[in-house]
Design a protein that fits this description.
Layout (H helix, E strand, L loop, with lengths): L1 E13 L2 E7 L2 E15 L13 E10 L4 E9 L4 E8 L1
Antiparallel strand pairs: 1-2, 1-6, 2-3, 3-4, 4-5, 5-6
Length: about 90
């Protein structure tokens, strides 16, 4: 079962891939990328923005060396923001 959050997070990248992120004051290291996909924002209009505003979704296994979980993080290219979208139990 997963929990939906939709909260802003800080993400560190390496060649466009997330390698760690900070959520709720805690640092998570990405150990494995489980899935990656791209969608287009449905609320986008050509007059409002210059390029195609993508949502880049990453499902990752992350945490410390001893404890980790599965997280879906999302990069909004239009505003260059990252969100924690979902956490799986």
């Amino acid at each position: 079962m997963g929990r939906v959050y939709g909260v802003p997070i800080t993400v560190w990248e390496n060649e466009g891939r997330p390698v760690r992120f900070r959520w709720d004051g805690r640092l998570y290291t990405v150990h494995r990328i489980l899935d990656h996909w791209i969608t287009l924002r449905s609320d986008w209009t050509p007059a409002a923005e210059g390029g195609l505003p993508e949502r880049r979704h990453w499902r990752v296994q992350a945490g410390s060396d001893r404890a980790f979980g599965v997280y879906e993080i999302r990069h909004e290219t239009a505003g260059d923001t990252w969100l924690l979208a979902r956490v799986w139990d």
